[in-house]
Amino acid sequence: MATILIALGANLGDRGETVSQAIDELAADPAFSLLGRSSLLATKPVGGPAEQPDFINAAAKYETNLSPDEVHQKLIEIEHQHGRVRALRWGARSLDLDLLLYDDVVLETPKLTLPHPRMSFRKFVMQPAAEVAAEMIHPQLGATMGQLWEQLVNSPPVIELATPPGPTAWRLCEEVQKKLGKDVVSIPLTAPHWPDSARELVDLLEPSPSSIKEDAGAVRLLPYWSEISAVIRDTSATTIASDAPSRLVILWIPAAESIAPQENTWWSPKAREDLQRRLIEAVQEKVHGPRLCLIGHDMTTAITEVTAAVEAVQ
């Protein structure tokens, strides 16, 4: 038997009743045994069209003898029974069921990714998840649901962008700030005069985010990662661990067409490929709290993802 964690949400119809019914319907299936259910949580919508109704969210923990794919299919069937139509990403829905964890399985197929790739930084997911399954471990981060929730609640509102530093990263941050406003997103740095070589680039990087002054409650979106200097130098050096880690680290490996031309003068294609590989490895090794991975995403898609992530961590 596998232990699984499921997230539930609805923002159409009788939201609370629908979510409660879905938990009970799974519990009534002989293939599932209900181990716990969270309280119902009212939340604002994140991403998607504006002016959506508020959501009711919850989480439930079960034991099951079904495979991950079979559980996923069962969740889709229950969504359909409640009138779910997948017409618009992050749009309003009568019922949304997501398989967050299936024991310690790590899986990526065209239909299913485990653990859920955006669960760790979404407060509307992690609050009920930590309530009902605080001890369950995220197999890629090595942290429990309770630990991830505590970091989301107690860490400063800082998001670090783990990406090759340069004008591409700055543009992403500026575009997200334009979408959400300066009262929501602060970029606590001024774009530097970019150097002629990657060797000079490291000298421009600012201190770690823990030393940056808070900006009136806005989320501070940093166009670099605190470990990036060591990644660029290809050394094992690391920054001093902060008592208050960032709320979220976003790994972004941009699509080639989204990279600013100036950056192509800093690294040859092979050198950039090596840098990106080291960056991915470093994030996987060092980031054990909330994180989002955007590999090969173009600028437009990255703006959408990061904008939604900023909203989700607030």
TrEMBL record:
What family does the Swiss-Prot or TrEMBL record give for this protein?
Belongs to the HPPK family.
Q: Which pathway, per its entry?
A: Cofactor biosynthesis; tetrahydrofolate biosynthesis; 2-amino-4-hydroxy-6-hydroxymethyl-7,8-dihydropteridine diphosphate from 7,8-dihydroneopterin triphosphate: step 4/4
UniProt KW Transferase keyword:
yes
Source taxon at top rank: Bacteria
**Encoding gene, per UniProt annotation:** folK
Tell me its EC number(s), please: 2.7.6.3
GO molecular function annotations of the record: 2-amino-4-hydroxy-6-hydroxymethyldihydropteridine diphosphokinase activity; ATP binding; kinase activity
Q: What residue stretches are annotated with the 7,8-dihydro-6-hydroxymethylpterin-pyrophosphokinase domain?
A: 89-100
**What role does this protein play?**
Catalyzes the transfer of pyrophosphate from adenosine triphosphate (ATP) to 6-hydroxymethyl-7,8-dihydropterin, an enzymatic step in folate biosynthesis pathway.
Q: Give an example GO biological process.
A: folic acid biosynthetic process
Task: Supply the name of the protein.
Answer: 2-amino-4-hydroxy-6-hydroxymethyldihydropteridine pyrophosphokinase
